[in-house]
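Hi all, long-time lurker, first post. I run a small reading group and we've been trying to get comfortable going from sequence to structure in the token notation. Rather than ask abstract questions, I figured I'd post a concrete chain and ask someone more experienced to write out its structure so we can walk through it together at our next meeting. Sequence below, copied exactly:
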Amino acid sequence: ARLVVGELPELPHLPELPDRGAGADMIGRTAAQQIDLPVEIVPSGWRFTAHPGRDLRRARDLLAWDLDALEAAAAGHVGPLKVQAAGPLTLAASVELAKGHRAISDHGAVRDLVQSLAGGLAEHLADIRRRIPGAVPVLQLDEPSLPAVLGGRVPTPSGYGTVRAVEPSVAEQALHDVLVAAPAGARVVHCCASDVPLDVLRNAGADAIALDATWLTSADYDALGEAVEAGTALWLGVLPSTDAPVSFDAARDRLRALWSELGFPLGRLAADVLPTPTCGLAGASPDHVRAVLRALRDLAKWLPEAGR
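-- Answer (accepted) --
Happy to help. Here is the structure in token form:
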């Protein structure tokens, strides 16, 4: 928490450390924040259960400890502060119902999950504001499984079949109903897959879309340009998430080249783009994390100068 706040003072975030075990992982951490939908660990992963138990308590304790650390490190912080959680489609594709089927296979279960998650994240953001009164929470929903949900590629329990594809309009509504837990202007959806459904994320009401810029090709430029024209910011992953050389120059050149390909003047770059790692940094060494965060800080300082 001290590292994040120290290197990214203008947009710090709540760190996630999933290698601590069950409950610190993205799915368990998010599932534990739902209201009245307890979960537990089974051999195949997380599953909804009738009563709260040890697994749920551990996940909530881990989150509380992390919030305590952030509260101490960010005391006196004024401005945006990002928190992240699994989005409703990824959560529904990962958590099982009592009989072993993924929640995404049951429309009623998805509806209950969306409502519960929205309420839990609203409480989470309110807790951030109580702990750090000057903070303006920004909510990022991580949706790595969204393309599989839309494409009907989520496996059934047997592994021999897949769950029926979810209609884009249904996915958009689910995302929208959770995003509104955060105030307008502070709603971000992240998807690091190669086939990011940009239209779905934009129609759901995302103020910013976070994606891995290394996947982008000229086939994506029209959709990206339309998103920017509609007022959606782009959080572009241009720095490696796992241990690899970190180059400020390479990331800067990638941002500048992509923006030129989209046909926008460099003077708009600072207003519409935020540089990020390509995905999460959980698998990186501490030295790599420090190098990436420093490069992000330097890129943020460069952006306003890009159009001069």
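A couple of things your group might point at:
The longest helix spans residues 107-131.
Residues 202 and 230 are 9 Å apart (CA to CA).
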